[in-house]
Amino acid sequence: MASPLVFIDGDQGTTGLQIHQRLRDRSDLRLLTLSAEYRKDPQRRAEAINRCDIAILCLPDQAARDAVASIENPAVRVIDASSAHRTHPDWTYGFAEMSQQQPQRIAAARRVSNPGCYPTGAIGLLRPLLEAGLVPRDYPMNIHAVSGYSGKGRTGVEEHEGAGAAQALAFQVYGLGLAHKHVPEIQQQSGLTERPMFVPAYGAFRQGIVLTIPVQARLLAPGVSALQLHACLMQHYADARHVQVMSMQQAKALTTLDPQALNGTDDVRLSVFENDETGQILLTAVFDNLGKGAAGAAVQNLDLMLAGV
């Protein structure tokens, strides 16, 4: 029996290149990619996606929708790395650590939507706490995150590594219209009933993310403490291979967070910081936007789907 055929549509972008590099030397699958002259040929792409066992789409949102619409072969399974289907009811959300049942759901799914980079950190922190009732679902949530410039795709890489790199901004906050496309995904998949405030930024480093969520203890149920929030995260991720929860003692010893600390890995590190005197708590996530935030999650989902065949 031939090994599964995996088609990467969009293997020249930042995420697609990373996925291709991770899969190209594997002997348990066959890779299908299109040569440069055929990458934008709709007929060739449709032929390729209908030939494969699993397609990984690393495309802009509309192109991803078009690619899915071109599928006529009912046996084709899809992992979509774009944001086109992340809140779609017919697609399985590809965050394996989200719940105990999620790996099995991904393994059996025909259509899997890879999580966004920022939502990976936000949902990873919030969903267990909301489900446990420790944080109200209508909490006025504020989320801030700083990503490496590769999060902007090839445009960001060119800005910081190309001919005009000397003029690239060292830091920039964006999404000032408060309509970032990741917000509906964060709200739906974490379980918030109210739209969170999300403020993203890019820094002058290639990859890595630090995401922070401030929490006021006075807005939580009486008696809920940082220790309880931390214990909940520890319990939820006790058996998670790619999610680390830093101990409260380790967190207390830190004075800074390095967004690049987990670069080159597929892990996310969650932490809880507190100030007893002020009643303020800070939830944080550090991870590689090209690892657990993109290619790492896609390959993790691919492996689950291959195991579930």
From TrEMBL:
Keywords: Amino-acid biosynthesis, Arginine biosynthesis, Cytoplasm, NADP, Oxidoreductase. GO terms for biological process: L-arginine biosynthetic process. The active site is at C117. One of its GO terms (molecular function) is NAD binding. Residues 5-106 form the Semialdehyde dehydrogenase NAD-binding domain. It comes from Pseudomonas thivervalensis. The lineage of its organism: Bacteria, Pseudomonadati, Pseudomonadota, Gammaproteobacteria, Pseudomonadales. Its EC number is 1.2.1.38. Belongs to the NAGSA dehydrogenase family. Type 2 subfamily. It comes from the Bacteria. InterPro entries: AGPR, AGPR_AS, AGPR_dimerisation_dom, AGPR_type-2, NAD(P)-bd_dom_sf, Semialdehyde_DH_NAD-bd. It holds the Pfam family Semialdhyde_dh. This is N-acetyl-gamma-glutamyl-phosphate reductase. Pathway: Amino-acid biosynthesis; L-arginine biosynthesis; N(2)-acetyl-L-ornithine from L-glutamate: step 3/4. One of its GO terms (cellular component) is cytoplasm. Catalyzes the NADPH-dependent reduction of N-acetyl-5-glutamyl phosphate to yield N-acetyl-L-glutamate 5-semialdehyde. SMART domains: Semialdhyde_dh. The keyword Coiled coil does not apply. It is found in: Cytoplasm. The keyword Oxidoreductase applies.
